[in-house]
Amino acid sequence: MDAALASFAAACQRPVAAVAEAVLSYRTEWTEYEPHLVAAGPREVFRLLDVAETDATFEGVYYFHGTRIFDTTTFRKEGILPLGQMIDRLWASLYTLVADIVTDTEWRRLRADIEAGAGAGGYQYCLKTPSPNLHGPYAHLAREHHLPRDGHHNYLTIPEIVEDIARSCGLDLAQRFQDTTTPCVVKFRTTGVDTETLHAGFWYIHGMLHNGTPGWFSQSDYDGRGNAVPPEDVVSVELIDATR
Q: Would you state the pLDDT for residue 244?
């Protein structure tokens, strides 16, 4: 949170303490998402700081990609790849987990069945794979949104596509995957900031300062739309303690 607050203050060209005071002074009781209310908080704080919203300039944004992976060093080598560049590799890696109980021929037949929609997760799998080259990578603006939350998929436990495959084929695949992979959060940089992201950043700071949680209104997601995040844009790879 300190880095986000410092960045916000630098963009406003105001002292960190002044920005924190202004954000803390803005309180709200509403809980429903309303676009005009989401914009009202940042607008009021900019007014208190005597800054025009259009004058708050950022060179880019940091996003956080949460996942669970066999080899966390691949992010530094290859960046973050979309589903289309990962799907064949993923199937090959998953097979190594069950090669003691399934033949290669059986595994290929199982993949064909799931790709046809069979199994408990086949339908969800097919929703993601018709155009895999347009799928992801995805990320959250707030790192905290990758930590377990009620009603949200926990990508640090198992990626959705792996869960779809595991639910369809059984074989204790989900547990084997979790036993041999590492949960991590990958921080990367992007260029450009739109108004929606600016407002989400404000609400992240607001929530953290007021009650130590980012809050729903800080939700802002990144969608690479099939474009990989290059390795030079990866800032850090944080390994997460799965026991916490």
A: 46
Q: Work out whether the CA dihedral 129, 197, 62, 163 comes out positive or negative.
A: negative
Q: How many CB atoms lie within 10 A of CB 156?
A: 18
Amino acid at the residue 115: E
**CB-based contact 52:11 (threshold 8 Å):** no
Dihedral angle computed from the Cα positions of residues 74, 78, 80 and 84, in that order, rounded to the nearest 10 degrees: -110
Coil, strand, or helix at residue 166? helix
Q: 92: which residues sit within 8 A by CB, 6+ positions away? A: none
Q: Can you give 108-164 as a three-state secondary structure string?
A: HHHHHHHHCCCCCCHHHHHHHCCCHHHCCCEEECCHHHHCCCCCCCCCCCCCHHHHH
| Residue 133, pLDDT above cutoff 70 | no
pTM: 0.90
Percent of the chain predicted with pLDDT > 90: 67
Mean pLDDT confidence for 94-113: 96
pLDDT digits (tens, 9 = 90+) for 18-30: 999 999 999 877 6
Residues 6+ apart with CB under 8 A from 138: 65, 221, 222, 223, 224
